[in-house]
Structure formats: structure tokens, C-alpha cells
Design a protein that fits this description.
Arc Repressor Mutant, subunit A; two-stranded antiparallel ribbon; 16 helices; Rossmann fold; 3 domains; about 400 residues; 5-stranded parallel sheet; alpha/beta; Helicase, Ruva Protein, domain 3
Length: about 400
């Protein structure tokens, strides 16, 4: 049959880009309360006062990063009304960083040309911080706001979150008032911060809760208006996408991905309507693909941890405590002759798996004698985890046979 001609004839989409991850909308729907709280937290800056340090937390896809972009753009625009302000913003996504040292190096390199960037190793921490203070002192700015997105990537090494908020108090930076905006996808990250960091960083905390089904429906309707041709969406399509996404994650990003995939399936099959069946098929394809891609990128110890929880779930022993997962992990690791790591390391692996959407937890409190603790269970269907694990790692796949 050969190749067909590429044409712009599209029975489904007018502008599919508005449903993609890299689309940057000019407004944030269903987040009026959080945006208002955010602007209030930044009010001292427009008053030429020292900024508050702000900590944003909530799972992925709930508007934290978009809210930050919109609010800071408004702030930078409004500063033009005042002659005594010169506000600078530095944005850094910490996803690829694993320590405060790496974050500090990346911040230094934000101020440098390509030919002058420093390597990720080879300097003492004190030297890197001094380079950073020098760059900030060289700014002709009244305020510097440092946005650290996905700051939970640094784990327990939170020194940068102490040094930056206290840069003025410690007289490391003189004329430029420094404020930090930390953004975390991990609810537990702020709980694990050291006491000195909590005192420095968390002047203002803003929680972005998951979207509910009605909120997701409004978000999808807004995007769908510009994305799809008139009449191609069945009346149940958006409500079903919203319901699935609210139930599974409360993430607008996932809801948009589901709606886009459903439309893409209809287009591939030359259908003129995006109906419920396409939503259900898209849901299965996205979930399987997400799990497979994520699992392939996980280290073996994380895969063994997930397999341990999968076993406990199949035996009806979940929700379970972290100690139960670790006890089973030790057996599983021994079966494949893997090094058995510490309970603390497995705790970090569980946190990583939870962040990626494989595991969910519920907090329990047994009062003054039992204290509070978390119970863990799978957050995706067992058969999808089984299939993905069997395909991702030969060592782990042997466990299913044994």
C-alpha cells in the first residue's frame, strides 16, 4: 500500500497542543484560593520588604508549578509600577539533583555562561556557597526569589534549604534580599526536614490538594473547547475522564493525558467521535505504558521492594506496615542473591515508589501508646505490576517462576 500523504485533515482535533504537557496556559482553573494565598505570601516583596520563604506541597499535576509561573510573572510585571524595585527570579528544577551540594552547583551555573560552568564535583561545599553568594551580591537587584521545584529529590540532605533562606541574616548576601520558594511533590518531605530548616524555609506553607471530579471536569472543558472540533466529544467523554483521574490521582496532567489519548485513538481509527470506549482503552494503554517506562528506569532494589509489596497484596496482607515490606524484601532479595540493604534504604525506595504512583499510604494513629504510622498498599492494579516486572528485569522475572 505504501506511504500516505501527510495532510492537515483532522477529523478530531483543531489544536491538540493545548492538551499536551508542554502547553503553558495563561490561567489556572480551579485554584483561586491557592493563587490568592500565594499572592498574599509574596506581598512583602512588592512592598520592598524582605520576602517570606514559601513552601508549596502537593502531588504532581495539581498546579504548583503553573501557579508559581503565573504569580511570579504577575509580580515581575507589577514591579514596573515602582521605581525602588528590581526583582530577579531564578528557577531550578532539582529533579536530577540528589544532594544540596548538587543543587548549589546548579544554582551557581545558572549565573554563568556555558564556558564558565563549574563541574558537579571537585569543590568543597563552602567554596560553592561562596561562589553563589558572590554571584548574588553582583546582581543589581533589590530582591532575588529562588524557585526550587521538585526539591524533595535531594532527600535528607537539606543543607541548601538552610543556607539560602538565611543568606541575609548570616551576612553572606548584603544588598539583595533573598527569598526561597520550595516546591515538593512529596507530602512527607516537609515532615522529614530538620528543625532548623523548617524554621528557615516554612514562613508560609501552601497546600495544593488533588482535584476532585468536578474540578477536573471544568479544567477539561476549558481545554477541550480549543482542542477539539465541535461535536466530536461524546457527552460522557469528559465526565468519564474526570472520574477516572479523580479516583486514581486527582491530577489534571493525567486527566488531560487521558482525554488526549482517547482523541488520538479515535483519530487513528478514522472515527468522527470520541466516545466512552476510547476513554477506557486509553486508560489501560496509559497505565500499562506508564508502569513499564517507570519500572525500567528503577534500580533493582526498588523493583525488589515493589515485588515484595505485590506478594503481600496478592496474599491479602495489605495495607501493611513498612516493617512487613522490609521483612518480605529480605526474603525476596536473598532468593535472587541480591545485596540486602538497610531498612532506611528501603524506606527511601518506598517513598520513591509512592512518588511515582505505584504505592499509596494511609496514616494511622493508635493514640498515646501506639503512636502514628503509615500503612502501605499498591496504587495500581496487580496484573499491570506483574506484567511490567516480568518484562523489566530478568532477575526480578525469575521470582515469578520461583
Amino acid at each position: 500500500m505504501g506511504l500516505k500523504e501527510f495532510t492537515r485533515d483532522d477529523p478530531i482535533f483543531v489544536n491538540e497542543a493545548v492538551l499536551r504537557d508542554n502547553y503553558r496556559p495563561e490561567e489556572l482553573v480551579e485554584r483561586d484560593a491557592e493563587l490568592s494565598e500565594y499572592q498574599e505570601a509574596l506581598r512583602p516583596v512588592i512592598n520592598a520588604a524582605p520576602p517570606k520563604n514559601i513552601f508549596l506541597y502537593g502531588q504532581t499535576g495539581v498546579g504548583k508549578t503553573l501557579a508559581t509561573r503565573l504569580v511570579l510573572n504577575q509580580l515581575l510585571s507589577d514591579q514596573e509600577n515602582y521605581d525602588d524595585l528590581n526583582i530577579e527570579v531564578v528557577n531550578l528544577n532539582c529533579k536530577s539533583a540528589s544532594s544540596s551540594y548538587q543543587v548549589s552547583v546548579d544554582l551557581v551555573n545558572q549565573f554563568r555562561d556555558t564556558t564558565e560552568k563549574i563541574p558537579s564535583t571537585g569543590y568543597a561545599s563552602s567554596q560553592v556557597y561562596q561562589m553563589l553568594w558572590n554571584h548574588i551580591n553582583d546582581l543589581d537587584a533589590t530582591h532575588l526569589l529562588v524557585v526550587l521545584d521538585e526539591i524533595d529529590s535531594i532527600g535528607n540532605d537539606d543543607d541548601i534549604l538552610y543556607e539560602l533562606p538565611r543568606a541575609n541574616d548570616n551576612e553572606s548576601v548584603d544588598d539583595t534580599l533573598v527569598g526561597v520558594i520550595g516546591i515538593s511533590n512529596d507530602f512527607t518531605f516537609r515532615d522529614n526536614l530538620s528543625a532548623r530548616v523548617k524554621d528557615s524555609l516554612c514562613d508560609e506553607e501552601i497546600h495544593f490538594p488533588p482535584y476532585d471530579a468536578n474540578q477536573l471536569r471544568n479544567i477539561l472543558k476549558q481545554r477541550a473547547t480549543n482542542a477539539f472540533r465541535d461535536g466530536v466529544l461524546d457527552g460522557d467523554t469528559i465526565p468519564l475522564c474526570s472520574a477516572f483521574s479523580a479516583q486514581e490521582s486527582g491530577s489534571a496532567r493525567q486527566a488531560l493525558k487521558l482525554l488526549y489519548k482517547a482523541g488520538d485513538l479515535a483519530r487513528t481509527r478514522d472515527d468522527s467521535e470520541v466516545g466512552e470506549s476510547y476513554v477506557r482503552e486509553a486508560r489501560d494503554l496509559i497505565e500499562k505504558g506508564k508502569v513499564q517506562d517507570e519500572l525500567e528506569s528503577l534500580p533493582t532494589q526498588s523493583q525488589l521492594t515493589l515485588f515484595s509489596l505485590l506478594q503481600l497484596e496478592s496474599e491479602g496482607k495489605t495495607p501493611c506496615k513498612r516493617s512487613d515490606i522490609y521483612e518480605r524484601y529480605q526474603v525476596v532479595a536473598d532468593l535472587v542473591s541480591s545485596d540486602i540493604v538497610s531498612d532506611r534504604t528501603i524506606h527511601d525506595r518506598i517513598s520513591q515508589l509512592r512518588l511515582k504512583g505505584f504505592i499509596q499510604h494511609d496514616e494511622r494513629n493508635d493514640g498515646i501508646h501506639g503512636g502514628s504510622y503509615y500503612l502501605y498498599s499498591l496504587d495500581i492494579r496487580q496484573e499491570i505490576v506483574e506484567n511490567a516486572l516480568q518484562q523489566s528485569n530478568a532477575r526480578v522475572s525469575d521470582l515469578f517462576e520461583s
